[in-house]
Amino acid sequence: xxxxxxxxxxxxxxxxxxxxxxxxxxxxxxxxxxxxxxxxxxxxxxxxxxxxxxxxxxxxxxxxxxxxxxxxxxxxxxxxxxxxxxxxxxxxxxxxxxxxxxxxxxxxxxxxxxxxxxxxxxxxxxxxxxxxxxxxxxxxxxxxxxxxxxxxxxxxxxxxxxxxxxxxxxxxxxxxxxxxxxxxxxxxxxxxxxxxxxxxxxxxxxxxxxxxxxxxxxxxxxxxxxxxxxxxxxxxxxxxxxxxxxxxxxxxxxxxxxxxxxxxxxxxxxxxxxxxxxxxxxxxxxxxxxxxxxxxxxxxxxxxxxxxxxxxxxxxxxxxxxxxxxxxxxxxxxxxxxxxxxxxxxxxxxxxxxxxxxxxxxxxxxxxxxxxxxxxxxxxxxxxxxxxxxxxxxxxxxxxxxxxxxxxxxxxxxxxxxxxxx
Length: 422
Ligand SMILES: Cc1cc2nc3c(=O)[nH]c(=O)nc-3n(C[C@H](O)[C@H](O)[C@H](O)COP(=O)(O)OP(=O)(O)OC[C@H]3O[C@@H](n4cnc5c(N)ncnc54)[C@H](O)[C@@H]3O)c2cc1C
Ligand code: SF4
Ligand code: SF4
Hints:
Blueprint: H1 3-14, H2 23-28, E1 33-37, E2 43-47, H3 53-62, E3 67-69, E4 81-83, E5 87-89, E6 91-97, H4 100-105, H5 111-121, E7 127-133, E8 141-146, H6 149-154, H7 169-174, E9 179-182, H8 185-195, H9 200-204, E10 205-211, H10 219-228, E11 236-240, E12 250-254, E13 258-261, H11 263-267, H12 278-281, E14 293-296, E15 316-320, H13 323-335, E16 338-343, H14 346-352, H15 354-372, E17 379-381, H16 385-389, H17 394-409
Parallel strand pairs: 3-17, 7-9, 9-10, 10-14
Antiparallel strand pairs: 1-2, 4-5, 6-15, 6-16, 7-8, 11-12, 12-13, 14-15
Helix pairs in contact: 1-3, 14-15, 15-17
This protein binds flavin-adenine dinucleotide and iron/sulfur cluster (SF4) (2 copies).
C-alpha cells in the first residue's frame, strides 16, 4: 500500500475538508475505502484496503472537499442571467407544493418533494436518489432510492446530521435507468465532478435538485443537545429535525417517550450558535450553483421566529438555474404540483439568506488563509470568488484571512485521522 496515497487520502478529512458525501467509497471500491461513522462522530472515509496513488489522484479531482465548480458551461444558455452572489439563474420564485399534505410535511413548503413526486408520476425518471432518516443512526441521513410517491414522502424534511448519498453511486448508475438527484450543494458538486470521468452521469441524471444549505450541525453538538434535553441518544428510535409545519417541531422518539422541541432550541436564535463542521464554514457554494433548481427558506434574516413559526405554512424560494429547471418548474406549476406565488430577485435571496451572502464574499480570503498555513486549498471554478472578494474592503478581507489562519492554528480546522467507531 502506498504511504503517500494513504496520507493524501487522510489529509482531506484531517484538514477539515470532507463533507461526508460518500463518493470516494464508490470511486475506490468498498474493499478499499468505507465511508462510515468515524470516532469523531462524522461519516468519514476509512481506508481498509490497498489504495494506490492513481485512485487518490482521481478522488482529489472528484471530492467536493478538494474541488468545487459552478454550473457546467454546457448548462448555460443565452437566457442565463448571472448574479455575482447568487450565480446563474433564469427565474427565482416564491412557491410551495400544490398538495397541502406535501406542503405540510415538507421541510419548508415541500417544493423539492412535490417536484420529485411530479417527476415520478409523469414517468420522466424511474427513481429519485436522495436521503431519508437513518434507522440505524437516527440523527443521520441515509442514501435512499424512491421509486414511488410514498417513498418520496418518506424522505421529506431536512436532515441536519451526516448523510452520504453518493456512497454507492457506481451501482446506482449501473442500473442504467434515468433518475433525479436531490442532494446538498456539495453532493451536487461531487456528482458533477464525477460526470467528467463517467459519461453515465450526464446520460442518466436527468434533474439536479438541491436544498440551499448553510451547513449541518456537528454530530457532537446534536448529541450534547439531546443530553441537555434529557434524551438518551442510545435509546433513540427516530428523530425528525423539521417539517410538518415550517419549520415544524423537532420530533424525538425514544424507547420511553416522544418529545417535541423547537427548531430554535436546536439551532439557537442566530448564526453565532451554529456549530458547523469546518468544511461548511468555508463552503464556497451553499447555494447550489451546479443544480437545475435550488430551494430555500424565506425567513427574512435567515432564521424563523418563535411566534411566526406557529402559523407559518411554508414558502420556498426557488432559484431556477437552467433551461431544464425552467421547463420542470413551469410544467409542475401548470399541473398544480407546485403553486408559484410571485417572482423575486437575487436581492430578495440575500434578504432571506444573509449568511449565504456573507459566506460567498468571504470564501476567497478564507482560502488565502488556508494557503498561508500550507493547507490544502480547494480548487474552485466558475464561482466568482475572487470577483466577490474584490467588492469588499481590505479590512474585512483581512479579518476573513486572519480568522482562518487563527482557526487553523487553534486546531479548529483539524480532525483526527478517520477511524471507524463501529
Ligand atoms: C443541511 C441543510 C442545511 C440547510 N441550510 C439552509 C439554509 O442555510 N438556508 C435555507 O434557506 N435553507 C436551508 N436548508 C434547506 C431547507 O431546510 C429546505 O430543505 C429547503 O427549503 C427545501 O424545502 P422543501 O420543503 O422543498 O424540502 P422537502 O420537500 O422536505 O425535501 C427535502 C429534500 O432534501 C433531501 N435532503 C434532506 N436532508 C438532506 C441532506 N442532509 N443531504 C442531502 N439531501 C437531503 C431529502 O431527501 C428531500 O428529498 C438546509 C437544508 C439542509 C439539509
Ligand atoms: S467529501 Fe466525499 S469524496 Fe471527499 S473525502 Fe469526504 S466522503 Fe470522500
Ligand atoms: S455548507 Fe456546503 S459543505 Fe456544508 S453541507 Fe452545505 S453544501 Fe455541504
